[in-house]
């Protein structure tokens, strides 16, 4: 270290009190880390601060040393001097272990409080408060209402918020900001310190933390601290042999082999995956190989997670396969390499994950991204380059979430018993996400709460008072995380809980005898106890099990990342057009990205084929439409949210124009539409050019009213407003009725806001449509399906879908059909229709209105057939559709759900469904093989169909 920096380091420690300096000497800390050198002086002066630095650079001590110094110097300590708030309970345990040493040295009492803290310990903390309390955002909510704890909290002088970037993008973080303003009412002004991973909007996160009060940002650049390599494994002879051992295809075997080799070349490796399903599937592969590798994710029980963390830290395990559960700094000891399996989807996620490697000062964090198809590879290249350049996504703060306002109005009333509406409004709008909250919106929320009996509103006195429902609501809603029922999974042989399963998975799959994978091991369901929400299982060795299908959103790829994939295509295509071969183009790109030529070469195939076919290349400045029978694809490298927004908009407008429903499927680079036969890509081009960008938001809201996502979100928001009691249940008060009942309320307004914020990108889509209209973005139509258009994520080799392993293929076909939607229509009363997933259909298939069993199973978008059946006078086309519907209903009447399954297959109408069923297959796998045969025949002959 140069003399100037060494002096600055000594100056940083010199700002601390002598007890802390003595403890530093005893601990062996003679030289501060870079964050400590830069942050300790302003924090020791009492300034608010946001510390942004990679994992392993001493952020926790950076924040806490000035806090410890102030506490050690304080003459009078009667309550809680500092709160250390972490988003995960598991981090509480780590923080307690890390801070206890300092507490012992400085005679500072440190304790932890969260949802699992015993009543005895809570009482002890209330009667004799610790100097420093490590807690969670939700536990702070509960503490603010306790009589003794309020007195203890009135002495708070410092609040440290760990992983503040994670909270800034969540409603629980928005709730915390108001909680901190409620704390300020008790304690007066206090110092706020935030610890954050690298984030693209430090000022926004700082304002979020401080309520837009003065603060300093101390940011440590990631330059030269992280190294990445993106690889797409090539299949070798070894992989051919390994594929047989793993009962998978050689490409998947190459992924497993590549990860295994990386693990064997290092001492301790974290293998990050994007979903729990992939974690379980990959874990089961390594279990079969006998490698000392375990699985770690949020659906495993606390005991299991702690066990694998401790074994990894002790060196008993070579690697952990983990999800985001391991992103937030849980201490698992030294990690010397990180593998990311598939693109991490976001720059911030890659930095956070790879930052776990080299978990000590001066060590470069190294990571390998293993990809598996062209989109995945190009996306990973873009993310890795942007990570090294520090081009990180901004935090997406939930501004003005009205269900959070509702929750916190009740919290303020709990604080005081009764409070003026004006004071509650002023407290809430001091929090940064609510600084622009309109007073009329606030009062609408108050009236909704009053109408739901969660508080009393005295309009004359402008007073909010507790009601009989206040206490019960508040303690049932300490968290803004939506309630989702889970079942505990217990191993009856060891009597241990091994994890949890989603309620939908249990209801639809976990019947006695069913098998599945968890912790990378096979389990058989013995019984399900619905009252105790418990699934009892026993371990088995059976390669035919399913992977638990947890419900979770796909990590959305941001528009700038998808746009860079478009730019890469734009770089490669002209070189192919000028006659360059793939090796030369790959060599050119590999010079600018952290990868090898072979990996780039494998990703360039679809671009080269597109150029050879003289088809337009979709880029950030060119959208490309293409079609095949009953399908139109819009190639749009604009990321998940823009494509979701465009897709919903176009589905609604095309549907309105044709009078038929239009289905859609979205990924970051294309939108695939299922359309009526008469719709062509040119129809979409006309709509794109003609749509007024100024009307997009209103059109989307109209489109959302028919969507399941709005109804689902509305139910969750309604629960937070107390407008939907859990005991009513969805069956007694369905989504359509709920929508009708709440449409003119702040509950509906918040549901719309949340869907717009979470799923859509309205402003960006409006801008894209303006650029299309102005000619800045070209709109091209391909003559036929293109290599890029048909090469989406779904066409890549999936970890769970090997191409040439028959059992796995059949399982995939079964899963896909069971999860497809079907439109059931009664042809007796002709009044009842219902869209549902195939797996939810039960024998006998009957109309719930009239009891008849003459029920047709139709494509989910086939309202035309329903209209034809109901038409009093029919034209020739309606007559044809009606006959087809009655043939479908006859099959369902004779064969029940088996007919529904066959009719739900792709390209299998009543005629072919009857041929499949008439084979009278006793073995279910053979039944699905017959379906697959018909689907393949349809795919081969599809071009001849209108």
From TrEMBL:
GO terms for biological process: DNA repair. Residues 26-46 are annotated as: Disordered. Keywords: ATP-binding, DNA damage, DNA repair, DNA-binding, Helicase, Hydrolase, Isomerase, Nucleotide-binding. SUPFAM superfamilies: P-loop containing nucleoside triphosphate hydrolases. Residues 258-403 form the Helicase C-terminal domain. Residues 40-217 form the Helicase ATP-binding domain. The keyword Membrane does not apply. Its EC number is 3.6.4.12. Coiled coil: none annotated. This is ATP-dependent DNA helicase. It comes from Haloferax volcanii (strain ATCC 29605 / DSM 3757 / JCM 8879 / NBRC 14742 / NCIMB 2012 / VKM B-1768 / DS2). The lineage of its organism: Archaea, Methanobacteriati, Methanobacteriota, Stenosarchaea group, Halobacteria.
């Amino acid at each position: 270290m140069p003399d100037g920096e060494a002096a600055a380091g000594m100056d940083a420690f010199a700002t601390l009190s002598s007890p802390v300096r003595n403890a530093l000497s005893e601990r062996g800390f003679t030289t501060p880390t870079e964050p400590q050198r830069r942050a300790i002086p302003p924090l020791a002066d009492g300034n608010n601060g946001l510390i942004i630095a990679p994992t392993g650079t001493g952020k926790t001590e950076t924040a806490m040393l000035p806090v410890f110094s102030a506490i050690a110097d304080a003459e009078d300590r009667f309550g809680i001097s500092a709160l250390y708030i972490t988003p995960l309970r598991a981090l509480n345990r780590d923080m307690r272990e890390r801070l206890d040493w300092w507490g012992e040295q400085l005679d500072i009492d440190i304790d932890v409080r969260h949802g699992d803290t015993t009543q005895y310990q809570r009482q002890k903390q209330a009667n004799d408060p610790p100097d420093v309390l490590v807690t969670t955002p939700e536990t702070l909510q509960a503490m603010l209402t306790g009589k003794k704890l309020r007195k203890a909290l009135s002495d708070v002088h410092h609040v440290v918020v760990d992983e503040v970037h994670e909270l800034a993008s969540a409603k629980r973080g928005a709730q915390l900001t108001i909680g901190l303003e409620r704390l300020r009412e008790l304690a007066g002004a206090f110092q706020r310190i935030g610890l954050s991973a690298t984030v693209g909007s430090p000022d926004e996160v700082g304002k979020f933390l401080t309520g837009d009060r003065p603060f300093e940002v101390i940011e440590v650049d990631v330059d030269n601290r992280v190294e990445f390599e993106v690889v797409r494994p090539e299949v070798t002879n070894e992989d051919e042999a390994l594929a047989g051992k793993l009962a998978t295809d050689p490409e998947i075997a190459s992924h497993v082999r590549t990860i295994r080799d990386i693990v064997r070349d290092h001492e301790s490796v974290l293998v990050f995956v994007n979903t729990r399903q992939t974690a379980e599937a990959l874990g089961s592969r390594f279990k079969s190989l006998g490698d000392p590798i375990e699985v770690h994710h949020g659906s495993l029980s606390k005991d299991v997670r702690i066990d694998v963390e401790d074994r990894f830290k002790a060196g008993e395990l070579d690697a952990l396969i983990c999800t985001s559960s391991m992103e937030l700094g849980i201490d698992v000891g030294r990690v010397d390499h990180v593998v990311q399996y598939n693109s991490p989807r976001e720059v911030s996620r890659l930095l956070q994950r790879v930052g776990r490697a080299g978990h000590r000062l001066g060590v470069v964090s190294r990571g390998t991204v293993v990809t598996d198809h062209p989109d995945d590879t190009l996306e990973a290249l873009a993310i890795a380059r942007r990570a090294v350049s520090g081009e990180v996504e901004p935090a997406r703060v939930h501004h003005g979430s009205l269900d959070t306002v509702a929750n916190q109005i009740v919290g303020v009333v709990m604080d005081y018993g009764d409070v003026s509406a004006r004071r509650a409004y002023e407290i809430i709008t001091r929090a940064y996400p609510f600084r622009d909250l309109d007073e009329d919106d606030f009062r609408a929320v108050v009236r909704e709460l009053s109408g739901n009996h969660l508080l009393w509103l005295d309009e004359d006195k402008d007073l909010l008072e507790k009601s009989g429902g206040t206490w019960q609501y508040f303690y049932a809603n300490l968290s803004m995380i939506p309630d989702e029922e889970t079942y505990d999974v217990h191993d009856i042989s060891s009597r241990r809980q091994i994890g949890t399963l989603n309620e939908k998975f249990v209801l639809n799959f976990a019947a006695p005898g069913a098998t599945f994978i968890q912790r990378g091991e096979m389990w058989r369901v013995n019984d399900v106890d619905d009252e105790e929400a418990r699934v009892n299982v026993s371990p088995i060795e059976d390669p035919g099990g399913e992977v638990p299908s947890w419900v979770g959103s796909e990590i959305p790829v941001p528009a700038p990342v998808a746009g860079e994939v478009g730019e890469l295509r734009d770089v490669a295509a002209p070189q192919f057009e000028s006659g360059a071969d793939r090796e030369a183009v790959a060599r050119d790109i590999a010079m600018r990205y952290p990868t090898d030529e072979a990996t780039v070469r494998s990703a360039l195939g679809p671009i080269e084929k597109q150029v050879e076919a003289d088809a337009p290349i979709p880029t950030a400045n060119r959208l490309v439409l293409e079609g095949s029978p009953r399908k139109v694809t819009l190639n749009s490298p604009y990321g998940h949210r823009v494509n979701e927004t465009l897709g919903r908009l176009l589905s609604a407008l095309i549907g309105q124009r044709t009078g038929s429903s239009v289905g859609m499927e979205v990924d970051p680079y294309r939108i695939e539409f299922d359309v009526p036969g008469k719709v062509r890509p040119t129809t979409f081009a006309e709509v794109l050019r003609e749509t007024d960008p100024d009307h997009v938001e209103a059109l989307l809201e109209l489109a959302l009213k028919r969507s399941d996502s709005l109804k689902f979100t509305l139910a969750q928001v309604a629960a937070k407003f107390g407008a939907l009691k859990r005991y009513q249940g969805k069956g007694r008060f369905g989504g359509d009725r709920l929508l009708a009942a709440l449409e003119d309320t702040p509950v509906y307004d918040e549901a719309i806001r949340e869907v717009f914020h979470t799923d859509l990108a309205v402003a960006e889509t409006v801008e894209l449509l303006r650029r299309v209209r102005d000619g800045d973005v070209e709109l091209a139509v391909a003559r036929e399906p293109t290599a890029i258009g048909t090469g989406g994520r779904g066409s890549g080799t999936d970890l769970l879908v090997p191409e040439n392993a028959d059992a796995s293929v059949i399982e995939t076909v079964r899963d896909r059909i069971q999860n497809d939607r079907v439109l059931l229509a009664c042809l007796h009363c002709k009044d009842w229709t219902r869209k549902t997933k195939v797996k939810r259909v039960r024998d006998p298939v009957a109309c719930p209105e009239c009891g008849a069993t003459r029920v047709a199973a139709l494509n989910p978008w086939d309202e035309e057939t329903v209209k034809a059946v109901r038409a009093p006078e029919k034209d020739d086309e309606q007559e044809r559709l009606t006959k087809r519907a009655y043939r479908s209903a006859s099959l369902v009447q004779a064969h029940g759900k088996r007919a529904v399954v066959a009719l739900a297959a792709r390209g299998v109408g009543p005629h072919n469904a009857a041929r499949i069923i008439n084979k009278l297959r006793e073995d279910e796998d053979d039944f699905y093989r017959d379906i697959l045969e018909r689907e393949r025949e349809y795919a081969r002959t599809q071009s001849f169909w209108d």
